[in-house]
Design a protein that fits this description.
CATH topology of the largest domain: TIM Barrel
Structural class: alpha/beta
Number of helices: 10
Helix content: 25-40%
Number of strands: 12
Largest sheet: 10 strands, mixed
Order of helices and strands: HHHEEEEEEHEHEHEHHEHEHE
Strand content: 15-25%
Shape: elongated
Radius of gyration: 21 Å
């Protein structure tokens, strides 16, 4: 059994059988979740005999940075190799005194959104909660080395749909925000979903503390079903109802993400449908540039983007127009595929 998936009860029994004091559990927890070590040998306040017993009874599965590449805008993309040789990607984005880590929650994606490169890969598997945390730990070390600053924000917007790996994602956020873990503020973490309504309601019922963002991309039900096939089982009205439930339970403002596609979802009529969708709860809207993923779609023109944005603002909505980062290394939204031609990087 992997040490990071072993329950406190199992650990207590292990230490009891080996005539070790119960305080060793607290020490072990600190090594795993505060100091974020990747081997038993690094647990230097454990006797060598205990280190060996741990090695004999538990595994310690490693996540490695296999490759990394730097964008012209100082964004870094990382290719991670998991313990079973599955490949995922993560992104490190410096911006105005902040460093944001974009983490993956699945290897590949089952949703097949038509403008997203990740969806073309197919689905390999869900990530374990500690594999989500490993991405943060490894990129945090690089952030300190490269930018002289720790990661300040996390977005669960990498490969995969977080709410289709609910338990692992929820537990990872718990550890990342726990005072006994990494101690990050929940307000610094954002979970992004395409709108899995059952998952959104469960987040509300489970008192999810971090931020919620929804990749809407279209307020028209039929059109959205073409762009995001899972909309067929999670239609726009049901999504709106689920978000209303979430806001009522959590009292948190939702972020709506909207990728503008030329002559697809960028008309004034589309803007009005987005306004109607957002009228039921407090939101802020992020307008996102489409990044080339080899699809038939093109980014909206500057004129249509301006008209669309102005229509939203005329309805007193909070609108932010986001600039893509890392496009030249295929690190921008929708471009993660687990494939890149970059230099090798060896983790020390």
């Amino acid at each position: 059994m992997d040490i990071r998936e072993t329950s406190s009860g199992q650990l207590l029994e292990f230490f009891r059988q080996n005539n070790e004091k119960p305080f060793r559990i607290k020490q072990l927890h600190d090594w795993l979740w505060k100091k974020n070590v990747f081997s038993f040998e690094e647990m230097i306040n454990f006797p060598k005999t205990l280190q060996e017993k741990l090695k004999m009874n538990f595994t310690f599965k490693r996540t490695l940075i296999e490759k990394e590449v730097e964008s012209s805008d100082k964004t870094f993309k990382f290719l991670f190799r998991l313990f079973d040789d599955v490949i995922i990607e993560g992104v490190l984005i410096p911006s105005q005194g902040r460093v944001t880590a974009c983490l993956s929650t699945q290897a590949g994606c089952v949703l097949k959104c038509v403008f997203c490169a990740t969806g073309k890969l197919g689905f390999t598997r869900n990530l374990h909660f500690w594999e989500i945390i490993d991405q943060f730990v490894l990129m945090n070390r690089r952030a300190i080395e490269v930018f002289g600053s720790r990661i300040s924000n996390i977005v669960l917007m990498g490969m995969g749909e977080p709410l289709l790996n609910y338990d692992s994602v929820f537990k990872a956020v718990e550890v990342l925000t726990s005072p006994n873990g990494n101690g990050l503020s929940p307000s610094r973490i954002t979970l992004s979903t395409v709108g899995i309504t059952a998952g959104i309601r469960k987040l509300a019922d489970d008192n999810f503390k971090a931020n919620l963002a929804v990749s809407l991309h279209c307020g028209d039900n039929l059109k959205r079903s073409v762009l995001i096939p899972v909309n067929q089982s999670n239609p726009v009205q049901e999504l709106q109802d689920a978000l209303g439930y979430y806001v009522e339970k959590t009292k948190q403002r939702i972020t709506i993400e909207y990728v503008l596609l030329q002559n697809v979802n960028d008309s004034l009529e589309d803007a009005d449908k987005l306004c109607r969708f957002c009228k039921a709860f407090p939101v802020k809207i992020n307008i996102i540039e489409y990044n080339d993923t080899g699809s038939v779609y093109k980014p909206s023109t500057l004129e249509r983007k301006a008209a669309f944005t102005n229509r939203l603002e005329s309805k007193n909505l909070i609108v932010n127009v986001r600039q893509s980062r890392g496009k030249d290394i295929a690190a921008a939204c929708g471009q993660l595929t687990g494939k890149m031609a970059v230099h090798n990087y060896i983790v020390s």
